[in-house]
Each structure stands twice: as C-alpha cells, then as structure tokens.
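Query structure, 334 tokens:
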C-alpha cells in the first residue's frame, strides 16, 4: 500500500517493526476516562488488533497488531471515544471519524489528585484537561505532566513542563504551643525550612517548597493553608533520550494556574519561531539549549501577568549527564 508516513504518524499510528502492521495511540488526558470507553478499546483490539492493549508511560493506550489496511475502519470505531474525551473538554478535533488530528504533543499525564489523595493540593485531572484544551492538536513535540503535590508521583521532573501543587502555609503564633512537631517533620522529611526561635517557629521562605508537611503535623492548627489562591511550581525542560538526559528544574514558584496556561501557550509560539526545520522534529529542551535560557525566559514571560507572590528563576543550570565526554569508564580486563 502507498503510505504517507508523516501523515500516518500524525494520525496517531505507529510505524512498527512488522511490515504492514501498526498500533493506534489513544490519548487519555489527565489519565482519567469513563469506564464505558473501555468497551470501545476492547472491540478495536479484538476485532482489528491482536487482542492486546498496552498501557503507556504517558497514561494512554496503544492498541497493537492493527493491519494498516484497516486504519480507516479503526478511525470510525474510535470516533465516539475521541468525541467524548477530546471534544468533551473543548478540544477542536474536526471530524472524529478521521481519527486523531495530531500526535506530536504527547498526552498530558496527571496523578490522581485531590479527588482521592489527601496530599494533593488540587484537581489534577481538571488542570490536565484545561492544558489539553489549550495545546491539542499540535505537531510540536512537547511533554507535560501535573502532580498534586511535591511528592511528584507522576514524575513531572522528567517532562518539558512539570506542574507541582504547593501549599502556602500561614502561621498563627497565638495557637502555637511550641511542641516542635512541625519543625521536626520539616527537618527530617522536607527542606529544613522551619526552625524554633524563642519558643515560636520561623519559616525560611527561600527554603520552603510548599509541601504542607507543617500544616499536616500541627496539632493545634497554628499552621493553616492559604485558601485564597491555588499555588503551583512550574518545572521546565526535563528529558530522557540519547543526548544529555536530565531532570526538569524549577522555573517559577508560587505561580497561579492562569499564568501556567499562558506560559505553555507562549512556548508553542517560541518553538514555532526557533525550531530547527531541517529536522523531522526537535525536542523543545534542545531548542532552549540552543537559544539559551534567557531568550526562552524573556519570550514566554512577555505579557504574562504574574502574581506578587510568584518567584522567577534568574538562571537555570540543568543537572544531567552528557554521553561520550568522560573518561570515567574502563573496559573490563584492562
């Protein structure tokens, strides 16, 4: 069969190692779907595929073993799922029976959030779906994950954008009985942002990451959370891959949700301006490496309204390792 590989992959199908056989990538924004859609996946897998579903690291599905000749029929079968999950959150997908309109920007993944987890600061599914509405469909290679708290169960530190929920702790000295529970917990389990002085507790704002451990441990509610706003930490440019794998690093702290959306949207404009078009695709982190962090920072923050509590990184030195630049290894036996 004649195949336009670029358009085929854009339609969310994989070029596999088996000639004439493909796998369909199914998006699950925020890792949350209604159980009724599982019957659609089952029907496609058993009727057109090899009867198997692969759960991806990005919380989506791959339906494997689909003959390439059956793609148009599979697109029609998956249409109700696309319409329900994508159009249902406001994504403009065109005709659902044509299948997915893009696959470059990966599925937005999320931990289970405060609907279930007592540590989570916000509804991660809701934010993931809001991000999905703003960025999909798009061909640029961007990965985003949202985590409800600083525990980062979703591994947001491995993404181009990682969003972590934060608690802004408010201290009422009159309620404090100087038991030391919050200080001890912060010293042992968090960032040592708290210390006892003159029978009261002092918080180091530079060390505090908004984990909320002090709030959870206080027996008298001397520590409470600021509920007037939701606060987030935005991590940027983590990645795996062949060249310089690294963790994402904090870009902004005590940030609002609206600002996160604006920054992510402006990043797509930044990529459009600076991407190397001689390549079939380019990871956004490599573009930032090439232009420099300051160019990226100035571009994506231009015109974005930041709340007064927000803190912005002056510079970022990404950890990680580079291949073929070290003499640290020796061959066995030499």
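Result returned for the query:
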């Amino acid at each position: 069969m004649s195949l336009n590989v670029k358009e085929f992959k854009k339609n969310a199908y994989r070029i596999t190692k088996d000639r004439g056989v493909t796998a369909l990538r199914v998006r699950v924004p925020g890792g949350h779907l209604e159980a009724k859609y599982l019957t659609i996946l089952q029907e496609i897998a058993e009727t057109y595929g090899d009867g198997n579903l692969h759960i991806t690291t990005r919380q989506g599905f791959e339906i494997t073993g689909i003959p390439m000749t059956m793609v148009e029929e599979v697109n029609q079968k998956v249409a109700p799922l696309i319409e329900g999950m994508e159009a249902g959150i406001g994504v403009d997908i065109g005709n659902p029976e044509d299948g997915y309109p893009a696959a470059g920007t990966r599925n937005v993944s999320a931990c289970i959030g405060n609907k279930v987890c007592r540590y989570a600061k916000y509804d991660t599914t809701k934010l993931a779906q809001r991000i999905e509405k703003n960025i999909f469909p798009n061909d640029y290679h961007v990965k985003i994950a949202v985590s409800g708290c600083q525990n980062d169960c979703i591994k947001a530190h491995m993404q181009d954008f990682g969003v972590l929920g934060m608690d802004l702790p408010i201290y009422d000295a009159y309620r404090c009985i100087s038991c030391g529970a919050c200080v001890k917990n912060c010293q042992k389990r968090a960032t040592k942002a708290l210390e006892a002085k003159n029978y009261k507790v002092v918080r180091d704002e530079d060390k505090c990451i908004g984990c909320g451990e002090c709030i959870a441990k206080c027996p008298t509610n001397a520590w409470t959370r600021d509920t007037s706003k939701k606060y987030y930490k935005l991590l940027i440019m983590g990645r795996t891959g062949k060249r310089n794998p690294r963790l994402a690093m904090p870009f902004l702290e005590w940030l609002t949700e609206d600002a996160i959306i604006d920054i992510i949207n402006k990043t797509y404009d930044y990529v459009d301006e600076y991407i190397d078009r001689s390549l079939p695709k380019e990871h956004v982190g490599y573009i930032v490496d090439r232009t420099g962090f300051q160019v990226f920072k100035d571009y994506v923050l231009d015109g974005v309204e930041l709340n007064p509590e927000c803190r912005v990184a002056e510079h970022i030195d990404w950890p990680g390792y580079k291949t073929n630049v070290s003499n640290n290894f020796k061959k066995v036996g030499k």
